[in-house]
Every structure is written in structure tokens, then in C-alpha cells.
UniProtKB/TrEMBL annotation:
Gene3D superfamilies: P-loop containing nucleotide triphosphate hydrolases (3.40.50.300). It comes from Haloferax marinisediminis. InterPro entries: CobQ/CobB/MinD/ParA_Nub-bd_dom (IPR002586), P-loop_NTPase (IPR027417), ParA/MinD_ATPase (IPR050625). One of its GO terms (molecular function) is ATP binding. One of its GO terms (biological process) is negative regulation of cell division. Signal peptide: none annotated. This is CDP-4-keto-6-deoxy-D-glucose-3-dehydrase. It comes from the Archaea. Residues 48-62 have a biased composition (Basic and acidic residues). Residues 2-172 form the CobQ/CobB/MinD/ParA nucleotide binding domain.
Length: 197
């Protein structure tokens, strides 16, 4: 299970989750771990599926990607069990983590096998990205890299601040972002880099 995390909302986590899910080879389950405001399904263009007995909806443009939302009204322990079962049942799950440092953000970081931190190039977001990376490490989950959103280049200082290599940048593009060839190519390069690590 690969967690996609950041310290701030609006940094590009959900876009990166779907972008990487579509870029990886084979079947991928994109999981929304935000119990308060799940929006991965909306960005993917599918109905929200939070029922264990229902088949995961497939991404309308990519049949190798399925999307799962968190169950409604479950406590922290049940939520962690749910995430662990999702990870056990899936060859590859990419998890859109909630922003911040609260319990909702901690659970997916603790369950994940690895973390990718997403950040735009602004000082507050970069500081929060560094805190998110530190939190993941404190939970014992390796940070395999960071993705810089809405940028064409990333200074070396980003890797130093986050304490992980920059896997790639995702250029600023008009909406719908994931329909843009430059963005799809960026996520393909990032997925290839992750595959080599």
C-alpha cells in the first residue's frame, strides 16, 4: 500500500493518487482515506462506493483502476482494520490520505508500506510536507520520495527539506488536469521512478 500524503489540503494529493493509479501497470485500487470529506470518487467520475458488499467502481477512462471510499460512521480501530483488509486484498493500493497530523492522517500512514509526500512550491506547504514526512518516519513508514505539484522544476532544497528524493514534478495545467498529456506523462515518469526504487 502506497500512501499519498501532505500536510495541507489543496496540495495535489488526490490528483497524484489518481495520476499514479492510472500510470502504474496492472490493476490498481485507488483508496480514499478521508472519512470526513472523501472526494476521490468525484475526481475519478464514479459513484461513491463505501459498501464492502459492492464491487469497486472502475475509473471511466481506465478499467485497470478501481476506486474505493471509506465506510461511513466507523471508529478509528475499525477504520484501521478496513485499510489493512483493503491492502491485504489488493495487489497494489494507492491511498489518498487526509491532510494534517490528526488521527485520521496517522492511520493510513501507519498502515502503508511506503509514503509519497506531495507539495507545491510555497513555503507553508513545504514546511507542512517536511512535518508529514517526519510523522511518517516516526510511525515507522519509509518516505520513498516527494512529488512537487504545479511546477516544472524543483530546487534541490525540496529534497533536503523533506528528507527524500524528488520523484518528479507535475506541471501546472488547466482543468481537467488529469486529461492533459503533460500531466499524464509526468505521472508515468514518476511511476517509473517509483518502480525502480
Amino acid at each position: 500500500m502506497l500512501a499519498i500524503a501532505s500536510g495541507k489540503g489543496g496540495s495535489g494529493k488526490t490528483t497524484t493518487t489518481l495520476g499514479l493509479a492510472r500510470a502504474f501497470d496492472g490493476h490498481v485500487l485507488a483508496v480514499d482515506a478521508d472519512r470526513d470529506m472523501p472526494n476521490l470518487h468525484a475526481m475519478a467520475g464514479v459513484d461513491r462506493c463505501d459498501n464492502e458488499d459492492t464491487e469497486n467502481p472502475q475509473h471511466p477512462d481506465d478499467p485497470t483502476v478501481s476506486v474505493r471510499s471509506p465506510p461511513s460512521g466507523i471508529d478509528d480501530r475499525a477504520f484501521e482494520e478496513w485499510l489493512r483488509s483493503v491492502a491485504a486484498d489488493t495487489h497494489l493500493a494507492v491511498v489518498d490520505c487526509p491532510a494534517g497530523a490528526g488521527p485520521d492522517a496517522v492511520v493510513p500512514l501507519r498502515v502503508a508500506d511506503a509514503v509519497v509526500v506531495v507539495t507545491p512550491l510555497c513555503a507553508p506547504a513545504l514546511r507542512d510536507a517536511a512535518k508529514t514526512a517526519a510523522m511518517a518516519r516516526a510511525l515507522g513508514t519509509p518516505v520513498v520520495g516527494c512529488v512537487v505539484s504545479r511546477a516544472r522544476v524543483a530546487p534541490d532544497s525540496v529534497a533536503e527539506l523533506v528528507g527524500a528524493p524528488v520523484l518528479g514534478t507535475v506541471p501546472p495545467e488547466s482543468s481537467p488536469v488529469l486529461a492533459q498529456p503533460t500531466v499524464r506523462a509526468a505521472y508515468r515518469r514518476i511511476s517509473d521512478t517509483l518502480g525502480r526504487n
